[in-house]
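Chain X:
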Amino acid sequence: MKARLLLDGGSPKVPPGELKKIVQDSRIEVSQGRADFGIVLGGDGRFSRYGRTEDMPLLFVGVRSKGATGSKAHLARTTFDELPEALAMVRSGKYRIDEHKRLGVLKNGKALGEVFTDVYLQRGSESTCVRYNVKVTGPRIHIEEAAIGDGVVVTTQAGSTGYYSYPDRVKGEWMDPTAFANLGRDEVGICHVVPTFTERTGTVRHPLRYTVPWGSRIDVSLFREADARLYGIADNHIGIKIKMGDTVSVVAGKKVTRLISFN
């Protein structure tokens, strides 16, 4: 059995040599090429990145953070200190493969790729509030909204514990960092980020967060020029520039992310 190690290229949470030794001691060959599965060591950001780019089964391994603001690794299926036991279960076939749907992201009709967790349009460093429209269409659904705020998040079930969950963590003037939302496999979540105003056409409602059926088409566009960036679909930290006249579309993806899980 072969495994490929997928680490943070900048500053991995664990020395690569240490991880490699644990894998080899588990009688699993470390491969730089074709492999039976990938081992992703890190936090939810790293899991999200490889979850949208890799087609082979993935084992998400979290690292317990000593710092209060370290990654919470909600998506981890095991932890680094429990990795030898998890690898032994993989070798003996005592695991299952869970398939998670991805969302496809387009800009002006051109495919940018797919996301495993979430994608979000947000104001850049040179902008105040972003003014944008959201249009949702699909079988038996049609929503049109306008909003002013920091941006909007579109998420899968796998990404629902991240940015999408910020309203769950707000408890009056305090917050509960452990709170998070739950989405169904056939739901897509839409959440406005710290809005100062929202308006849904044809109603007197001012939405903050809601779900739509899987397969719905979500179109987002600016109605005033701003330094707006699309995040979650690119590997860089500056995002993809979105201008007036551009349309970001989020649809059902064509691929799935396969995760190794244990009973």
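Chain Y:
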Amino acid sequence: MKKVLSFDIDQTLNIAKTPIPDEIAELLRDLLGKYEIAPISGQKFEQFLIQIVDRLKDVGTTPEQFEHLHLFVAQGTQYYRFSAAKNDWEQIYNFPLTDEQVKEITEAIEKAATELGYWEADKLQDGDEIIENRLSQVTFSALGQKAGTEAKYAWDPDCKKREAIVARVKELAPAYEYEIGGTTSINAFVPGMNKVFGMTHLLEELKVEKSEILYFGDMTQPGGNSHEDTAYALRGILGVYSK
């Protein structure tokens, strides 16, 4: 029997970098409490709030329901849980990089992207940035976080640009792991601090076995999937539960 529904975010619950649509928000609201809901993504905490939590508030999710929502941030290297008593989110754990590690990764990524002609700071919107310190990982977003969805999808659809950046940055800073994600992103982190690490901690924190988790991700099958596919599956799960 499944006890936890876990999700990647971009492409799985939404169009990349946009808030989850109404139907997904309503389905997740109705499933909270019936299951533990555990999104796990390379996104920073604030993006989880914008893309998921705020939308769940919009559809009337209660504080008691939010206690069944578990945010595994930065590939699960940070974990946040909601307290209805405090009406706020609490950080349960975090495994941050040191300032020296952040500096080394940041300089290596900028150098690699610049050498290859993929450092496009002139395309950033006001207040945006290409490289973010997400505490337990550093993330390169080629066009920044605020760029439009169409521009992001068009920038590197076959991942060739990011593969070239990763190949060069591995030469410059070989002590770290690099993971291509989303539409324009590269996540950099200490070896082992990836989604496998996050999922292992998810099992421990929620006290469940691997067989009790149903995971949705856009790269779990050939051709990927979409938030429409996720909505279809969630309607089926909710329908079976209600019988």
